[in-house]
Give the backbone structure.
Amino acid sequence: MTNYEKYKAHLRKITDINLAAGVLHWDQEVNMPPKGADFRAQQLATLSEISHNFSVDVEYGKLLEKLDGDSNLSEDEIRNVEISLKAFRKSQKYTAEFVKNHSITVSEAFQAWDKAKKENNFSIFQPMLEKLVELKREECKLLGYSEHPYDALLDQYEPDTKSSDIEKVFQDIKEKLVPFVKELMAQKQNEDAFMYQRFEQQKQWDFGIDLLKQMGYDFESGRQDLSSHPFSIHFSAQDVRITTRIDVNNLNEMIWSCIHEGGHALYEQGMLKENYGLPLGKAISLGIHESQSRLWENNVGRGLPYWKANFRLLQSYFPEELKAVNAELFYKAMNVVKPSLIRTNADELTYHLHVMIRFEIEKALIEASIEVKDLPSIWNAKYKEYLNIDVPSDSKGVLQDIHWSHGSFGYFPTYSLGSFYAIQFYNQAKEEITDLEQEIEQGNMQPLLAWLRKNVHRYGKKYSAQNLCKKITGEKLNFEHFLSYAKEKYKPLYNL
Amino acid sequence: MTNYEKYKAHLRKITDINLAAGVLHWDQEVNMPPKGADFRAQQLATLSEISHNFSVDVEYGKLLEKLDGDSNLSEDEIRNVEISLKAFRKSQKYTAEFVKNHSITVSEAFQAWDKAKKENNFSIFQPMLEKLVELKREECKLLGYSEHPYDALLDQYEPDTKSSDIEKVFQDIKEKLVPFVKELMAQKQNEDAFMYQRFEQQKQWDFGIDLLKQMGYDFESGRQDLSSHPFSIHFSAQDVRITTRIDVNNLNEMIWSCIHEGGHALYEQGMLKENYGLPLGKAISLGIHESQSRLWENNVGRGLPYWKANFRLLQSYFPEELKAVNAELFYKAMNVVKPSLIRTNADELTYHLHVMIRFEIEKALIEASIEVKDLPSIWNAKYKEYLNIDVPSDSKGVLQDIHWSHGSFGYFPTYSLGSFYAIQFYNQAKEEITDLEQEIEQGNMQPLLAWLRKNVHRYGKKYSAQNLCKKITGEKLNFEHFLSYAKEKYKPLYNL
């Protein structure tokens, strides 16, 4: 065995454990009976501890140091080693005790959050969230940072991005997007009441499956289930699962979660089998992951060509409910811009204000300038300030998102970055694919999927997010693309 | 930490890994998309390897040796250590390579068996089965044995039982049970055609859930799903899952698998939380495990009192199909003794001939007196000889059982032992519980479950199978109890 082969075998083992833990996580959210929670948390903690021990193994570290600069390695191999070495150096900063505490707390916090949300009672979640925030502050110290402690968390999801970068983007949003949204709000709203009729659960489910198949999601390498918060997860590129949530009184929930999670899943299904466990077999960053879901959700799914392809099928499931609707009216309805309570249901413009609120809260929690117990009132005040919305209950407010219960702080900003990468990629795809939107209008998503496979999916972490963006589009992330897209799309929709 | 605490922590870690692997196994059979199989096999192999490494860890061995004879230990602690030390000494005989090969082969064999059975093509399974048999022969050599290599395999499922013991039981069956079955076969058969009408899947499912709830199966600590071969599995006493199989043209499949797997699950749900991972938190043997399923299935479920309690409910699900039936006719129908093809559907008397065939084949495979490629013809010949049955296809013959694809050789004989323990326990319960069968007739299973919890479940491995039997019933396993039960029950059913 060469050193590189030893490295690969070791990484494969770590990946096997992590993805096995993934199966336990998926099961926990989809299938596990309630009393199973305690021992499940313990089992996950044990897997996490074992994986951590392999990740920080001194011999593995020595192997990586030896491979660093090994002149026999190919370009791809060098890149794998480079990323693994960075991760190793980072992982050495964690103590086994921290990893175990974190894992146990996260499992318990999920149960508490789930109960708190169901019972609309923040106090059920509060002590667990306090524990988690403490752990996150400790994590920032363990990892270190140069500007702001929050940077240490951000780097886990969006490498090489800092709080100050995010702040700049949100500054742009405040200065350029918010005034545009105000302009829109002064106009007459488009009709979307027909989205909120009663739509039978099974028919919604079936339509969602149709959309996923059309996108090219491979059901022999995945499955869809129901869960309280839709998510995608992979146990290999050959087993990439998604979940959805169906509201029988609101067609939006199912449609957007299917397309969104389907976009994530296509990214994972597009990883190369031979790169299993290696950095080149893993997503670049959450921002790029989100670009794949947002591209399908917003740039494709909320576009007129997509509904020219699919509205009739939808209508055939719900002929009575949608008899007075056509593709154009449907397109207008799904692009209503309106400040709202729930992030995951927000339109693609005000969405970024939801993200901004979470970013501001997280940053303040991490720097300890606010306290967990005050979150409901802080949350509600910010929704009033930025979105002019009164939050009627914590279930629809501070408890709406699953992320904190997972210990995912530093995650939310990547959602906005994802949308901005998405439009930049989509514009480029339109330039490179002949008649892309006519193909979409025919229900043919294959050219777009092939383009994404070729330009994004197959590379894994071969390029950094910014370098991939530059390679594909000729420039780094540029918010102006999103702004132009927003204006071009929404001005006609709002008769501006 | 005392040595005993260290021992407990180590065992808990091993159990966490093994039960995590259990979740992956369950998922594989209930949910996994087909292309996920390859990496799943690899992930299971990795978990198995890690668990094995912990189990054979030299430091752990030293700890056990230190604890062996430690005068500070309680009686229960001494018993835990004794069993763990035996297991440790055994586990030292396995090489890491064998464990890994075994795990990979088993995962692949399951896929091959599943396909072979679906396509009725033994040759798809044959090469994997050959690999497995080779591995099993190797395993017997690794473990060692005094009389017959098969004893080494048997000991894994039914400690302290030898092939020669099993042969004695089957000798009894041949001499005493087979003539009795022949007597029955000379009489007029009871009517059971109404069991083979069309029974809607969802209603069958719902009735099965009702039966499980009545037995006392806790759905907050478990769930039921569909799979091709019903099984039960636990990830803690608080997460014990079962699966069933529904044949819309045969009511038997669902009813008996629900009650049978429910019986297994009640045993696991009855283990004490504080014994998680310890021998005293684990089933004594497969024979005792099977006694719990068979007691519910045969002694309770195939009894008249049970259907006096439940037939009306069943009839309310299927009023048309069962309008001409009553509890007595139903009782007669489900106790038709008739040689048949499929073990899991066999009546409680001829069942043991099915087990005998598998035992003879396994023993011959292990001693290499027959070859895998000849299995279909050997199988069919034995079914002709013992049951006077022509096997129409390998799917209904040699491919019918999942066990070999799991690498489970030495397992089948425990099914017969289970039935014999079951009736011995049940007779005792009838003596100790006031009006037991009147309670059952009222649908009250609580007294029986409480008796089993008290006398069997809570002990785990505290006593050996034979010692537990003696403790409860005053004597060791005695086949005569089964024979008396059979005669007492079936003579009136067949007008003898």
Q: What stands out?
A: The first helix of chain B runs from residue 3 to 30. The radius of gyration of chain B is 22 Å. The domain at 163-493 of chain B is CATH 1.10.1370.30 (Neurolysin; domain 3). The mean pLDDT of chain B is 95.
